[in-house]
Amino acid sequence: MRIAVIDDESIFRMQLQMMVEKIAAEKEIHMEVEGFASGQEFIEGLSNRRYDIVFMDIFMPDMDGIATAKRLRDLTERTFLIFMTASEGHYPDAFSLHAFDYVTKPFTLQRIKQVLDEIIEHTPMDEAFIKITVGALEEKIHLKDIISVTTDGHYLEINRADGVTNRVRLTSGEFLKMAGDDKRFIMVNRGIIINMDYIDYVDSGDIYMDDKTIFPISARKIAEISQQIKDYQFSNR
Question: Which residues are recorded with the post-translational modification 4-aspartylphosphate (predicted)?
């Protein structure tokens, strides 16, 4: 899980990061934490990153937490948003932005653990994976980490969220069979399969992905595939 902490005070960013890492170690769950000193810095970071959980301080100079959260919500409704503040006077603003929770400073390890426990209950960890052979080794790849799969001759290139590309001797059909009935994956053109969780936007028959790749939709299926994507995104907001 990717977690962003936005707070102009470094002591709170460091404290929360340490708490999250301690909780992650206890639960044996991978949690990657990244800190941002301002709302603007965080919004700029969203151009090439996505986060499962965002801890947002409300009182920050220039762009405060409410304004930053509005920008976040313009981009996605799916991120768990938790506001942090020493004051309790912003509940209406916080929950109008679909905040998951509200943490009052100074926060405790117990309180942060409670918030993360509730999020994990709402989002069961996705452990579905495929196994591929890389050289003489067998490697396990979680389906949630695959952005796209493209055909190159007799091989597939599996493009992952961590920037790694695995080249394996498989067909598109074999990959889809391995992925089972996972609804995230859709073939948008001959030899092109994408994970709809990583779509940035669709425009004029092209799909723009979070990793900046662009894929054309089959000309004969633009309306059909565009509708499938809309239906998936609507049901997974």
Answer: 57
pLDDT tens-digit series, residues 175-218: 988 887 688 999 999 999 999 999 999 998 999 999 999 999 99
Find where tokens 């089959």 sit.
218
Helix-, strand-, coil-residue percentages of the chain, each rounded to 5: 35, 30, 30
For residues 127 and 142, is the Cβ–Cβ distance under 8 A? yes
Q: Which residues contact 151 (CB under 8 A, 6 or more apart)?
A: 157, 171, 172, 190, 191, 192
Nearest Cα neighbor of 53 from 92, 91, 23 is 23
CB-side neighbour CA atoms (13 Å) of 101: 17
Task: Spell out the residues 6+ positions from residue 41 whose beta carbon is closer than 8 angstroms to its own.
Answer: 6
pTM, entire model:
0.56
34-90 pLDDT, tens per residue?
999 999 999 988 876 778 899 999 888 888 889 999 999 888 777 899 999 876 655
Structural domains in the chain, CATH included, are: 2-122 (3.40.50.2300), 129-235 (2.40.50.1020)
Q: Is 228:234 a contact under the CB 8 Å cutoff?
A: no
Q: What is the DSSP-derived secondary structure letter of residue 132?
A: E
Give the C-alpha separation, 89 to 83, whole Å.
12
